[in-house]
Fold these 2 entries.
Entry 1:
Amino acid sequence: MVRKLKTAKTGANQMDIIKQAQAMQQEMLKIQEELKGKEVEASVGGGAVVVKANGQKEVLSISILEETIKDAVSDKEMLEDLVLSAVKEAMRQAEELSEKEMSRVTGGMNIPGLF
């Protein structure tokens, strides 16, 4: 009889864990959807290049000052470096935002492949 109770209790615990995991999954899907609407902005070179991205690490826009474009005629590599730096910073900020939002659900646990 004791053995059956343990089995029933273990089964109930497993069901609770499954329900919790499903609730967590739903919350994560909701947060991922919300991240589409959240933006980060990275500016480099004193505003010469500005990159906007959303919380899902999608680049939304790249703005380059007219003066920077004129300077790029003689220094193409400088413009490429500025754009690359701004994109990398925007992606870093988007990653940080995503991790912060997801940690609300995961309690700070690092779950591989989650985001």
Entry 2:
Amino acid sequence: MDIHTKIRKAQASDSQIVPEIMLQAMGDIIFRFIQKEDRKEAIHFLTQLFKQKGNLYSYENTFVAIDDNGHIAGSLTGYDGDRFVELRQPILNHIMEQYNNTMIPEAETAGDEFYIDSIAVAPIARGKGIGTELLHYAIAHAKQSGFKKVGLLVDLKNPNAQKLYERIGFKLGQKTPFVGGEYYHMYIQPD
């Protein structure tokens, strides 16, 4: 690894940086939520939700990787899959109130797992093992929290991400449609 990172729970004050990193992993989905391909508006959308408690994209559900210079180099958002419907509702309310969008996306998780919603690394920090480090941290967190399984979705159009997850030990599950795309549900059972 080229740089040393420290991973910690995100804080609401990380909202200056984390939503922009998150958007890299979630762009197409967020653009569908806000009904336009507007990067600035998408970051605004994620920032509002990141700063609030009790939703899928909250700082409460996010870990950040901090580099040697104290900069946020990556983020991973994950939560108890059994709480998905409860945590998704504030987002559905927000897209209805702010964007008059009544869409209700498919469930990303069936529950019974620690679900990794998004993982992304800042462009300047890519290729340095930060994504792998965040995944290992999330798996250890899930195990420590009593989860028997960690799951995530990987876009069929992103074979590099799939290879990374497989290298860590994730197994391919079912194909899953989500917000107009096709994904594999992948999972790992923490040792």
